[in-house]
Write a structure and sequence with these properties.
Strand content: 5-15%
Shape: rod-shaped
Radius of gyration: 26 Å
Low-confidence stretches: none
Strand order of the largest sheet: 1-2-3
Number of strands: 3
């Protein structure tokens, strides 16, 4: 049986610390330089059956990690949300898990910090705790991280009415001369969509449309 042969091993200029491989003249993928050294990869080396799955696994993990880095260059992600995105892109699950673990070890993925930043920035844009809870749960963030992030933004005893009050007043002005019951319903729905619900919110709306 003729074994495939490694025909190129060259540094990947786009991914420091990796080398690109070609097998029988066909591009194969990039693997970590340490893996290549440990496996003795060199031009002319035959790819024996036991080496093939190791090469595939290493290349898949490196490709998934490269996707993780590209995603995190654009914005931060919750770990579970990023996992789903990588799987949708077709990366094998073992490669995704390895890539996410590598990112976490490098301090690039931390759901607690992500939740705190998400709550702080979205609260500043007028989103309430209910909406933020739903959004973070949908992204797979642990409930404990969410509770701590919300508590940090709205500590016990803090005034939680300022933002919904301002939103309600602005919305009421936009609704003009609509009948009061209609106005009240629409403002309550508007605030609920933004994550503000409860008796306090009902009281605020009642005062705004009085």
């Amino acid at each position: 049986m003729t074994l495939p042969i490694i025909t190129a091993v060259e540094p990947d200029p786009r991914r420091p610390g990796t080398v690109r491989l070609a097998i029988d003249g066909v591009k194969f993928g990039a693997v970590p330089r340490e893996f290549a050294s440990a496996a003795g990869l060199a031009v002319g080396k035959p790819v024996v059956p036991e080496l093939q799955p190791r090469l595939t696994q290493a290349a898949d993990a490196e490709a998934a990690f490269h996707t993780v880095l590209r995603a995190l260059e654009r914005r931060s992600f919750a770990r579970r949300d990023l996992e789903r995105r990588l799987l949708r892109k077709g990366h094998p699950r073992p490669a995704v898990e390895a890539a996410l673990a590598r990112g976490a070890e490098m301090g690039l993925l931390e759901d607690g910090a992500f939740a705190r930043d998400f709550v702080r920035t979205r609260a500043a844009r007028g989103r309430g705790p209910g909406r933020l809870m739903r959004d973070l749960l949908a992204m797979g963030v642990d409930r404990g991280h969410i509770d701590r992030a919300l508590a940090a933004e709205w500590p016990e005893g803090a005034d939680r009415t300022r933002v919904p009050q301002a939103l309600a007043a602005k919305r009421a002005a936009q609704l003009g001369d609509l009948p009061r019951p209609v106005k009240r319903r629409r403002i309550l729905a508007y605030l609920a969509r933004r994550g503000f619900t409860g008796h306090d919110i009902s009281d605020i709306v009642a005062k705004v449309v009085a």
